[in-house]
Design a protein that fits this description.
The protein has 258 residues and is of the alpha+beta class. It is built from four helices and 15 strands.
């Protein structure tokens, strides 16, 4: 896994920064449209128009993950509402007051990929939903803080799991972060939970995502018949935050922020 990881140069990291900055700009633009009454398909269209206007290509539309058994993903964004953990389809559903929605965006700008996820509150949300969002975002930054040059790859997941479970919530185990560069998914795979070993050491030039998916209840999930949408088995709320980061000699550098 680690042997196949391509270390990026400073120039390549800057190109990845440009792509991921556009992802961050898309999230900031989209924020005002995420409100009660908004249709998921409209959010998808708005995001795609913004991305294309800025000279980039969307990555998720038509994506199959390389599987012949998986239908092409129909949207520009993943739109995961309430108990949906990830890969929610941006269809004609309408957001309601009190919902939370995880929006995942991937794009390619001048040959380099950007990828991040933000969970938005829709109007006034419950205290438990707000706490879930806060813990999830904090867990992301706990993971980023653990991603120091010379540290171990799997220390990231151990730090996230310890933090989340101490707060009575659970980490989804089957989906983790991933390397990113000219392709959306590259080595290494980044676990969000503790692994049997600490894994390889982190080296400057590595670029990958950290994207914990946190459930208010248990971590088990169910895949819906659409072949994409993953929901919590116990129907508890789920949230996700994601950043793309580069390992530098001075520490992790977040690429997917303004």
């Amino acid at each position: 896994m680690f042997r196949n990881t391509q270390l990026k140069s400073k120039k390549e990291i800057q190109k990845l920064r440009d792509a991921n900055r556009l992802v961050a700009q898309t999230f900031e633009m989209l924020r005002e449209y995420v409100k009660p009454g908004a249709k998921l398909s409209d959010l998808d269209r708005i995001a795609e128009e913004f991305i294309v206007k800025h000279g980039a290509k969307v990555l998720y539309k038509g994506y199959t993950g390389g599987s012949r058994n998986t239908p092409p993903f129909p949207g520009t964004i993943c739109a995961s509402v309430n108990e949906e953990i990830c890969h929610g389809i941006p269809d004609d559903r309408t957001l309601a007051e009190g919902d939370i929605i995880g929006v995942d965006i991937g794009l390619r700008l001048r040959g380099w990929c950007g990828d991040a996820c933000v969970t938005y509150a829709v109007g006034e949300i419950s205290e438990e939903a707000r706490r879930l969002m806060e813990v999830t975002e904090q867990a992301l930054y706990i993971g980023i803080k653990a991603a120091q040059p010379g540290a171990y790859l799997y220390d990231i997941g151990a730090a996230i799991q310890d933090f989340v479970e101490a707060r009575g919530m659970s980490v989804v185990r089957e989906w983790g972060g991933h390397g990113i560069g000219r392709e959306l998914h590259e080595p290494p795979s980044v676990s969000h939970v503790r692994m049997p070993t600490r894994g390889p050491r982190l080296r400057p030039g590595m670029v990958f995502t950290i994207e914990p998916m946190i459930n208010l209840g248990r971590p088990e999930w169910v895949l819906l018949e659409d072949g994409w949408t993953v929901i919590t088995r116990d129907r508890s709320l789920s949230a996700q935050f994601e950043h793309t980061l580069a390992i530098t000699p001075k520490g992790p550098k977040i690429l997917s922020k303004l």
